[in-house]
Specification:
The protein is mainly β and 242 residues long. It has a single domain, classed as Jelly Rolls, CATH 2.60.120.560. The strands form 3 sheets. Strands 1, 3, 4, 8, 11, 12, 13 and 15 form an 8-stranded antiparallel β-sheet that branches. A hairpin with a 2-residue loop joins strand 12 and strand 13.
Protein backbone atom coordinates (compact mmCIF):
# COMPACT_ATOMS: atom_id res chain seq x y z
CA UNK A 1 0.00 0.00 0.00
CA UNK A 2 2.86 2.36 0.82
CA UNK A 3 4.41 1.71 -2.60
CA UNK A 4 1.05 2.30 -4.29
CA UNK A 5 0.53 5.66 -2.51
CA UNK A 6 4.05 6.75 -3.37
CA UNK A 7 3.49 5.89 -7.03
CA UNK A 8 0.21 7.84 -7.05
CA UNK A 9 1.92 10.85 -5.45
CA UNK A 10 4.70 10.79 -8.04
CA UNK A 11 2.20 10.53 -10.90
CA UNK A 12 0.17 13.44 -9.51
CA UNK A 13 3.28 15.57 -9.17
CA UNK A 14 4.29 14.83 -12.75
CA UNK A 15 0.80 15.75 -13.98
CA UNK A 16 0.91 19.03 -12.06
CA UNK A 17 4.28 19.90 -13.54
CA UNK A 18 3.15 19.08 -17.06
CA UNK A 19 0.12 21.33 -16.67
CA UNK A 20 1.92 24.22 -15.00
CA UNK A 21 1.85 27.01 -17.57
CA UNK A 22 5.14 28.38 -16.25
CA UNK A 23 7.01 25.26 -17.37
CA UNK A 24 9.11 25.02 -20.52
CA UNK A 25 6.92 25.01 -23.61
CA UNK A 26 6.54 21.92 -25.72
CA UNK A 27 8.62 22.56 -28.81
CA UNK A 28 6.62 23.02 -32.00
CA UNK A 29 7.95 22.97 -35.56
CA UNK A 30 9.24 26.31 -36.79
CA UNK A 31 7.57 27.79 -39.83
CA UNK A 32 9.28 26.96 -43.12
CA UNK A 33 7.10 29.25 -45.21
CA UNK A 34 9.04 31.45 -47.63
CA UNK A 35 8.98 35.16 -46.98
CA UNK A 36 8.31 35.09 -43.24
CA UNK A 37 10.74 36.84 -40.90
CA UNK A 38 10.97 36.67 -37.12
CA UNK A 39 9.54 39.47 -35.04
CA UNK A 40 10.86 37.78 -31.89
CA UNK A 41 14.29 36.14 -31.85
CA UNK A 42 13.45 33.90 -28.89
CA UNK A 43 16.19 35.43 -26.73
CA UNK A 44 15.75 39.20 -26.47
CA UNK A 45 13.24 42.01 -26.89
CA UNK A 46 15.12 43.42 -29.86
CA UNK A 47 12.54 45.07 -32.11
CA UNK A 48 10.02 45.65 -29.29
CA UNK A 49 9.21 48.33 -26.73
CA UNK A 50 6.45 49.11 -24.28
CA UNK A 51 3.79 51.34 -25.83
CA UNK A 52 4.94 54.98 -25.73
CA UNK A 53 8.20 54.04 -24.01
CA UNK A 54 11.73 53.37 -25.27
CA UNK A 55 12.22 49.97 -23.62
CA UNK A 56 10.21 46.94 -22.53
CA UNK A 57 8.84 46.95 -18.97
CA UNK A 58 10.42 44.51 -16.51
CA UNK A 59 7.20 42.50 -16.07
CA UNK A 60 7.65 41.17 -19.59
CA UNK A 61 10.30 38.44 -19.67
CA UNK A 62 11.90 36.09 -22.16
CA UNK A 63 11.77 32.50 -20.85
CA UNK A 64 12.73 29.37 -22.81
CA UNK A 65 12.13 30.99 -26.18
CA UNK A 66 8.84 32.57 -25.11
CA UNK A 67 7.65 36.06 -24.22
CA UNK A 68 6.03 35.80 -20.79
CA UNK A 69 4.09 38.35 -18.73
CA UNK A 70 4.90 38.04 -15.01
CA UNK A 71 1.77 39.08 -13.10
CA UNK A 72 3.17 38.80 -9.58
CA UNK A 73 2.88 42.57 -9.07
CA UNK A 74 -0.46 44.04 -10.15
CA UNK A 75 -1.18 47.71 -10.78
CA UNK A 76 -4.84 48.35 -11.51
CA UNK A 77 -6.12 46.14 -14.33
CA UNK A 78 -2.61 45.70 -15.68
CA UNK A 79 0.77 44.69 -14.22
CA UNK A 80 3.33 46.94 -12.53
CA UNK A 81 6.00 47.90 -15.10
CA UNK A 82 4.10 45.94 -17.72
CA UNK A 83 1.78 47.56 -20.24
CA UNK A 84 1.25 46.52 -23.84
CA UNK A 85 4.39 45.87 -25.87
CA UNK A 86 4.60 46.86 -29.54
CA UNK A 87 6.92 46.27 -32.46
CA UNK A 88 9.43 48.98 -33.29
CA UNK A 89 8.42 48.65 -36.94
CA UNK A 90 5.04 49.55 -38.41
CA UNK A 91 3.52 47.21 -41.00
CA UNK A 92 1.10 47.56 -43.91
CA UNK A 93 -0.24 44.56 -45.86
CA UNK A 94 1.08 41.53 -43.98
CA UNK A 95 0.51 37.98 -42.79
CA UNK A 96 1.23 37.65 -39.06
CA UNK A 97 1.60 34.29 -37.31
CA UNK A 98 2.20 33.62 -33.65
CA UNK A 99 1.40 31.14 -30.92
CA UNK A 100 -0.12 32.01 -27.55
CA UNK A 101 -1.25 30.31 -24.37
CA UNK A 102 -2.87 31.54 -21.18
CA UNK A 103 -3.03 30.69 -17.51
CA UNK A 104 -6.55 29.58 -16.43
CA UNK A 105 -8.96 32.52 -16.49
CA UNK A 106 -6.55 34.53 -18.63
CA UNK A 107 -7.17 37.47 -20.96
CA UNK A 108 -4.86 39.17 -23.48
CA UNK A 109 -5.01 40.26 -27.10
CA UNK A 110 -3.16 40.80 -30.36
CA UNK A 111 -3.72 44.38 -31.46
CA UNK A 112 -2.69 45.57 -34.91
CA UNK A 113 -2.26 48.79 -36.90
CA UNK A 114 -1.46 50.52 -33.60
CA UNK A 115 -0.44 54.18 -33.61
CA UNK A 116 1.92 56.01 -31.24
CA UNK A 117 1.29 59.73 -31.45
CA UNK A 118 2.53 61.61 -28.41
CA UNK A 119 -0.25 62.00 -25.86
CA UNK A 120 -3.05 61.61 -28.39
CA UNK A 121 -3.66 57.92 -27.70
CA UNK A 122 -3.54 56.52 -24.15
CA UNK A 123 -3.77 52.83 -25.06
CA UNK A 124 -2.98 50.63 -28.05
CA UNK A 125 -6.64 49.71 -28.45
CA UNK A 126 -7.61 53.34 -28.97
CA UNK A 127 -6.47 52.95 -32.59
CA UNK A 128 -5.83 49.25 -33.33
CA UNK A 129 -8.41 46.49 -33.75
CA UNK A 130 -7.83 43.38 -31.61
CA UNK A 131 -7.87 39.64 -32.12
CA UNK A 132 -9.09 38.47 -28.73
CA UNK A 133 -6.93 36.10 -26.66
CA UNK A 134 -9.04 34.55 -23.91
CA UNK A 135 -9.64 31.46 -21.81
CA UNK A 136 -13.19 30.90 -23.05
CA UNK A 137 -13.89 28.34 -20.32
CA UNK A 138 -12.55 30.37 -17.43
CA UNK A 139 -13.01 34.10 -18.12
CA UNK A 140 -16.29 35.98 -17.76
CA UNK A 141 -15.70 37.94 -20.99
CA UNK A 142 -16.52 34.76 -22.92
CA UNK A 143 -20.16 35.36 -21.96
CA UNK A 144 -20.13 38.66 -23.86
CA UNK A 145 -20.95 38.54 -27.57
CA UNK A 146 -17.90 39.35 -29.73
CA UNK A 147 -15.52 39.02 -26.76
CA UNK A 148 -14.50 35.35 -27.12
CA UNK A 149 -11.09 34.09 -28.14
CA UNK A 150 -10.53 34.59 -31.87
CA UNK A 151 -13.18 37.31 -32.17
CA UNK A 152 -12.36 40.63 -33.77
CA UNK A 153 -12.95 42.17 -30.38
CA UNK A 154 -16.33 43.88 -30.01
CA UNK A 155 -16.70 44.06 -33.80
CA UNK A 156 -17.18 40.57 -35.28
CA UNK A 157 -17.78 37.24 -33.55
CA UNK A 158 -15.82 34.17 -34.61
CA UNK A 159 -17.52 31.79 -37.02
CA UNK A 160 -16.80 29.02 -34.48
CA UNK A 161 -14.92 28.49 -31.23
CA UNK A 162 -11.59 27.13 -32.45
CA UNK A 163 -9.65 27.88 -29.26
CA UNK A 164 -7.86 25.34 -27.09
CA UNK A 165 -8.11 25.14 -23.28
CA UNK A 166 -5.94 27.22 -20.95
CA UNK A 167 -2.38 25.95 -20.83
CA UNK A 168 -2.42 24.71 -24.44
CA UNK A 169 -0.83 26.49 -27.38
CA UNK A 170 -3.00 28.24 -29.96
CA UNK A 171 -1.86 29.35 -33.41
CA UNK A 172 -3.19 32.78 -34.38
CA UNK A 173 -2.91 34.37 -37.82
CA UNK A 174 -3.84 37.85 -38.97
CA UNK A 175 -3.84 38.58 -42.70
CA UNK A 176 -4.35 42.22 -43.60
CA UNK A 177 -4.00 42.92 -47.29
CA UNK A 178 -5.32 46.02 -49.07
CA UNK A 179 -8.31 46.21 -46.76
CA UNK A 180 -9.15 42.50 -46.75
CA UNK A 181 -8.88 41.18 -43.19
CA UNK A 182 -8.84 37.50 -42.21
CA UNK A 183 -8.28 36.05 -38.76
CA UNK A 184 -7.35 32.39 -38.32
CA UNK A 185 -7.26 30.44 -35.05
CA UNK A 186 -5.73 26.98 -35.09
CA UNK A 187 -6.18 26.77 -38.86
CA UNK A 188 -9.81 27.90 -38.87
CA UNK A 189 -10.79 31.11 -40.68
CA UNK A 190 -12.83 32.55 -37.80
CA UNK A 191 -13.28 36.13 -39.12
CA UNK A 192 -13.31 37.54 -42.64
CA UNK A 193 -14.20 41.14 -43.44
CA UNK A 194 -13.19 44.28 -45.33
CA UNK A 195 -11.73 47.24 -43.52
CA UNK A 196 -12.39 50.95 -44.14
CA UNK A 197 -15.56 50.56 -46.22
CA UNK A 198 -19.06 51.64 -45.15
CA UNK A 199 -19.75 48.31 -43.42
CA UNK A 200 -16.53 48.67 -41.42
CA UNK A 201 -17.60 52.13 -40.30
CA UNK A 202 -20.98 50.74 -39.26
CA UNK A 203 -19.32 47.98 -37.24
CA UNK A 204 -17.31 50.58 -35.34
CA UNK A 205 -20.36 52.80 -34.86
CA UNK A 206 -22.13 49.87 -33.18
CA UNK A 207 -19.21 49.02 -30.90
CA UNK A 208 -17.58 50.32 -27.72
CA UNK A 209 -15.16 52.24 -29.97
CA UNK A 210 -17.83 54.43 -31.57
CA UNK A 211 -16.56 57.58 -29.83
CA UNK A 212 -13.01 57.14 -31.11
CA UNK A 213 -12.65 58.77 -34.53
CA UNK A 214 -9.20 57.24 -35.10
CA UNK A 215 -10.08 53.67 -34.18
CA UNK A 216 -9.59 51.20 -37.03
CA UNK A 217 -8.84 54.02 -39.47
CA UNK A 218 -5.16 53.36 -40.12
CA UNK A 219 -3.78 51.20 -42.92
CA UNK A 220 -0.34 50.88 -41.35
CA UNK A 221 0.78 50.44 -37.75
CA UNK A 222 2.55 48.45 -35.07
CA UNK A 223 1.72 44.99 -33.72
CA UNK A 224 0.92 44.90 -29.98
CA UNK A 225 0.71 42.15 -27.35
CA UNK A 226 -1.65 43.13 -24.58
CA UNK A 227 -1.09 43.30 -20.85
CA UNK A 228 -4.56 42.66 -19.43
CA UNK A 229 -3.26 41.74 -15.99
CA UNK A 230 -3.18 37.97 -16.64
CA UNK A 231 -0.28 35.59 -17.28
CA UNK A 232 0.23 34.97 -21.00
CA UNK A 233 2.94 33.43 -23.15
CA UNK A 234 3.76 34.15 -26.82
CA UNK A 235 6.25 32.45 -29.13
CA UNK A 236 7.14 31.83 -32.80
CA UNK A 237 6.14 35.36 -33.83
CA UNK A 238 6.72 35.76 -37.56
CA UNK A 239 5.45 38.08 -40.28
CA UNK A 240 5.44 38.25 -44.05
CA UNK A 241 4.97 41.50 -45.93
CA UNK A 242 2.41 41.18 -48.73
Amino acid sequence: MKFFLTAVAITAAMFACNNNTAQTAVKMPASNNDGFVKLFDGKTFNGWHTFKRDTVGSAWKVVDGMIYLDTSKKEGWQVKDGGDIVTDEAFENYHLKLEWRLAPGGNSGIIFNVQEDGNKFEHTWHTGPEMQVLDNDGHSDAKIYKHKSGDLYDLIASSKDASKPAGEWNLAEIICNNGKLDLFLNGVNVVSTTMWDDNWKQLIAGSKFKGRADFGAYKKGRIALQDHGNAVWYRNIIIKKL
